[in-house]
Design brief:
By secondary structure, this protein is α/β, with parallel strands linked by helices. It contains 10 helices and 18 strands. Strands 8, 9, 10, 11, 12, 13, 16, 17 and 18 form a 9-stranded mixed beta sheet that branches. The protein has a 5-stranded mixed beta sheet with strand order 2-7-6-5-4. Strand 14 and strand 15 form a beta hairpin. The longest helix has 16 residues, at 273-288. The radius of gyration is 27 Å and the shape is elongated. The relative contact order is 0.10.
């Protein structure tokens, strides 16, 4: 877990939860744990090992068990939970709260929230939101597009042609996620890239200026975020450099500790970089399906040599 956190107030707002009781630190109280707890054992009176630092969620089963207890037991069990420094307690299914819950929440200065969502959906949405908001992140100078369903991060020095390549790909029917500034977060599913909201859908083309891709090419030409599947690094063509012509060895780069396939593409006048990016995506997909054209050709050449008489 990193040092990032989110306030209870912001989480409640994002999930459109009803605030029943606000603690005095409701606006400033934060959580930095993306796990939740359903306090079934605690409602049964067992508080040993209580994971009180997590959000507490009372689902349908816990609520029905609680309501079957005697009034004295209900009071003591909720009192036991509220006596710990829990960040907040959330009731799903829009359940009605007893006076004991409300009175004890006020006494112990705890936040009580309520959601109309079923428990499973509520936990899933909380996990997704916390996963993103608490994730490690980095901002890079690059372009990000979705090409044939794969997220492609286009990197390179300034003026190498990243934005022009992005525009060419957009005119070919692919989708822009971000130009110039890409925010990347590390999720369980991989690296997710997006664009800062204030510059979303805009593209800078030298000699023209700023253009609005969504207005020029329609909503189907843009996307707010995508998982990053590979990196295309553009560099100026160097006649003195030996470039890979076979592609037998895959190269990788690391972003936030995650290995991502990278292809270095030399750029010079007359070279269709957008087409090369498309081919690279198709070829990468074929590799993921178990077919590597370079390896196949190499195997054929070796087999042919072995057939020749010594």
């Amino acid at each position: 877990m990193n040092n990032k956190s989110i306030s209870i107030a912001k989480l409640a707002e994002k999930l459109n939860m009803e605030v029943i009781i606000k603690s005095s630190d409701y606006e400033t109280k934060t959580i930095n744990n993306d796990e939740v707890n359903r306090p079934g054992l605690q409602l049964a009176g067992y508080l040993e090992g209580f994971p009180y630092k997590r959000l507490q969620i009372i689902g349908k089963v816990e609520y029905e068990y609680y309501m079957d207890l005697s009034p004295d037991e209900r009071y003591e069990r909720i009192r036991g939970i509220f006596s710990y420094p829990i960040p907040a307690i959330i009731f799903s299914h829009g359940k009605e709260l007893t006076e004991d819950i409300i009175d004890l929440a006020r006494y112990f200065n705890k936040t009580v929230l309520r959601s109309e969502l079923p428990t499973t959906r509520l936990i899933s949405r909380i996990a997704n939101i916390l996963d993103e908001l608490l994730a490690e992140e980095v901002t890079v100078h690059a372009d990000l597009l979705e090409v044939y369903g794969m997220g492609v991060l286009i990197t390179g020095d300034s003026s190498v042609g990243k934005s022009e390549t992005a525009l060419d790909l957009i005119t070919r029917g692919h989708r822009l996620v971000a130009d110039d500034v890409v925010d990347i977060i590390k999720l369980d599913a991989g690296l997710k890239g997006s664009c800062p909201e204030n510059i979303r859908h805009f593209l800078e083309i030298r000699g023209i200026g700023i253009i609005d891709i969504q207005r020029l090419y329609g909503v189907g030409s843009v996307k707010t975020s995508t998982i990053i599947d590979m990196v295309i690094h553009l560099e100026q063509w160097d006649d003195n450099k030996e470039y890979d012509r076979l592609g037998l060895d895959d190269e990788y780069t690391e972003i936030l500790g995650v290995k991502i396939p990278i292809i270095n593409v030399p750029v010079k006048p007359g070279r269709n970089v957008a087409m090369i990016v498309e081919v690279a995506i198709r070829n990468t997909r074929q590799k993921s399906l178990g077919y590597n054209a370079a390896v196949e050709l190499n195997n054929r050449l070796i087999a042919e040599m072995q057939k020749k008489p010594q």
